[in-house]
Amino acid sequence: MATASSSDSVGADLDRWIAQMPEGVDPGIEAARQRIGRISRQFGQVLARAAARHELSVGDWEALSVLRRSGPPYVRTPKQLAETLGITSGTVSVRIDRLIRAGLAEPVSSADGRSRPVGLTRKGRQRWSAATKERTSYEQRIFSGALTSEQLAELNPLLTALLARFEEEFGPASRHDVNRSTT
């Protein structure tokens, strides 16, 4: 029935999976959806491994990423962090407190006494940079072990077309996973 290779976890189970689905489920689309979802979760594992090796949680790394990508002076309010990361104010407070205790972020004075902006410290930039370099190194190793540079050049336009179509239908995709309970 399915033409998928059984060399991965989707291919190994696809025929059985499709047999359990309602009539009309397209095996090719289901296989692609399953693979994209599983690859996304694997990217999460890569990030978790790299973050942990640098004494960060994934949540810490994400908060540091938002601060780092904000550009000099690398400052954001808790509300801005929460909105960007798609987390609650309580969760962002826990992350900020943990980052401040670790010396990776620091409170920044503000003319608006209602907010408590936080800025990235030098130590925070260094830790984020080291974890990010390790994450990209893992990814480069995995990609180069699976795809040639030509295949990667073919893959990106295909993914671009698919993402663009989803975004036409549902709006721009978030840069971060949202509504996660991890702190």
> What structural class is derived from the secondary structure elements?
mainly alpha
Instruction: Give the SSE order as H and E letters.
Output: HHHEHHEEHH
Mean pLDDT: 90
CATH structural class of one domain: Mainly Alpha
Low-confidence stretches: 179-183
Which oligomerization state do the chains in this entry correspond to? Answer: single chain
CATH architecture of one domain: Orthogonal Bundle
Structure commentary:
It is a single chain. With about 180 residues, this protein is mainly alpha-helical. It has a domain at about 55-170: Arc Repressor Mutant, subunit A. The chain is about 65% helix and about 5% strand. The chain has 7 helices and 3 strands, in the order αααβααββαα. The protein has helices at about 10-20, 25-55, 60-70, 80-85, 90-100, 120-145, 150-170, and strands spanning about 75, 105, 120. Strands 1-3-2 form a 3-stranded antiparallel beta sheet. It is elongated, with a radius of gyration of 20 Å.
Characteristic terms for this protein:
mainly alpha, 183 residues, single chain, 3-stranded antiparallel sheet, Arc Repressor Mutant, subunit A, 7 helices, elongated
Helix-strand blueprint:
Layout: H1 9-19, H2 27-53, H3 58-69, E1 75-76, H4 78-85, H5 89-101, E2 105-107, E3 118-120, H6 122-146, H7 149-170
Antiparallel strand pairs: 1-3, 2-3
Helix pairs in contact: 1-2, 2-6, 3-5, 3-6, 4-5
Short account of what is shown:
The chain has 183 residues and is mainly alpha-helical.
